[in-house]
Amino acid sequence: MKKVTINDVSMPAIGIGTWNMGNSLVNRSTEIKAIQTAIDVGAQAIDTAEMYGDGRSEALVAEAIKPYSREKLFLIDKVLPSNASKTKLEHSLDQSLAAVGTDYFDLYLLHWRGGIPLAETFNELERVKKAGKIKAWGVSNFDVSDLEELWRLKNGTDC
Questions:
Q1: How far apart are the first and last CA of the chain?
Q2: Nearby residues of 96 by Cβ (< 8 Å), 6 or more positions away
Q3: Of 134, 48, 145, nearest to 158 (Cα)?
Q4: What Cα–Cα distance (Å) separates residue 107 from each residue in 23, 27, 39, 136, 145?
Q5: What phi and psi values does residue 36 have, to the nearest 5 degrees?
Q6: Confidence (pLDDT) at 103
């Protein structure tokens, strides 16, 4: 499988996203099969988020990846901006880890910019990274001005 490297983190170039998965029990077995088929043909990265299906996507991923070796997968999850504070981030992360059935995420993203100062969020992401709950952290859905602010922060280049 081809890999890409971003900020010294090597990750699979091909993966599957789970947006809109887990919303319907009628589609559950088909969605699990879609994830497993993707893995079987070489996709190793699986992207989900606490907001997808109000957490049901994470549970779907957990069920889909059970037959596979965790070490061969690259799991990506996202925290909602409202949960990206010093007081809420780790709790939110722990809930997502439990829902996916893993003890770490390879990549944990701030889903989009919210009202919590970036420095607070990124300090907390660094803390949970040092605790071993995530291997790397990043951002999703950021505008250029948000990225420029990120790079000026103490831990911004760790993104």
A1: 24
A2: 50, 58, 77, 79, 105
A3: 134
A4: 24, 27, 18, 5, 23
A5: -65, -35
A6: 97
Beta bridge pairs of residue 12 = 3
Of 52, 68, 104, 108, the active-site residue reads 52
Question: What's phi and psi for 6, nearest 5 deg?
Answer: -125, 120
Q: What is the C-alpha separation between 90 and 151, in angstroms, rounded?
A: 23
Is-contact 47 16, C-beta < 8 A?
A: yes
**Residue 52 appears among annotated catalytic residues:** yes
Q: Tell me the domains of the chain and their CATH numbers.
A: 3-158 (3.20.20.100)
Only one residue has tokens 């170039």, namely 13
Contact 63, 97 (CB under 8 A): no
Structure tokens at 114: 């919210």
pLDDT in tens, 109-135: 999 999 999 999 999 999 999 999 999
Cα 95 to chain center, whole Å? 13
